[in-house]
Amino acid sequence: MPIVNCGRFDVNYIEQGEGFPVVLIHGLAGDHTAWLPQVAALKNDYRVIAFDNPGSGESSTVDTPASTADLADATLGLMDQLGIDRAHVVGRSMGGAIAQHMALKAPDRLQSVAMAASFARLDPIGAQIIANLQQLLHWRPNWSEWAPHAVFLFVAPAFFNDNPDLMARITSLVSDEGRDMTSYDNLATACLEHDTLDRLGEIDIPTLVMAGKYDPICSMTSQNWMMDAFPNAELEVFEHSSHFFLMEEAEKALTAIKGWLAKNTP
Questions:
Q1: Which helix (H) or strand (E) holds 112?
Q2: Which of 15, 162, 251, 265 is deepest in the core (most CB within 10 A)?
Q3: CATH class of the 3-264 domain in this structure
Q4: pTM above 0.70?
Q5: Distance between CA 85 and CA 54 in Å, rounded?
Q6: Domain ranges within the chain, ordered by starting residue
Q7: Contact indicator for 181, 193 with CB cutoff of 8 Å
């Protein structure tokens, strides 16, 4: 996979398909592979780009503090490197926060924004969860010990109880000791400090807010805050899911994303 320089960071990405560009931005604990099902589903109709955020996968580590605005600059830099003037942007969790800064910095570069389980400002419980997970790594710098304290927060209780083998695989994936802890620490702080809520009224780009009803990290409170602030947004609630509704209700989520892209593609 190619790696390109995007200013402060080198960014690793994949690109598949042809057509109007769609840029997929993953969340705090992931990398570009979180999007592989969506890449496979969209590549016949769109030029799909998924990449490792700085601090994740094969992209540059984040050795010093960085903000979600800094990550937005890197994503716009990747679009520059790939010759993409304008794109749909789909961000999950922290990726949606990055997309907000992209829309504020360069609204002419975004055709639409879709945010999955994201936030403009974490509510108190969401901030507490991120701070707790961050603190766990300070106490015990071991991903294998961290993972069981995290994964149950990502899915609804029924999904956790009904899918023990899948939850074991997810736990194993996030237990990868190759993940850079300093990067995670700095990016967790970036999430805690992210606050664009008072500026969302400036974003008039078509916006889709997707929410998991049982998500404690990016709760319905934080989703409703965004809906009250965005001038041009639609809300899709996944009634049986939590933070990982793209997996928990995969068919419904993919249908929502496909419908959104089709409606807003010139």
A1: strand 110-116
A2: 15
A3: alpha beta
A4: yes
A5: 22
A6: 3-264
A7: no
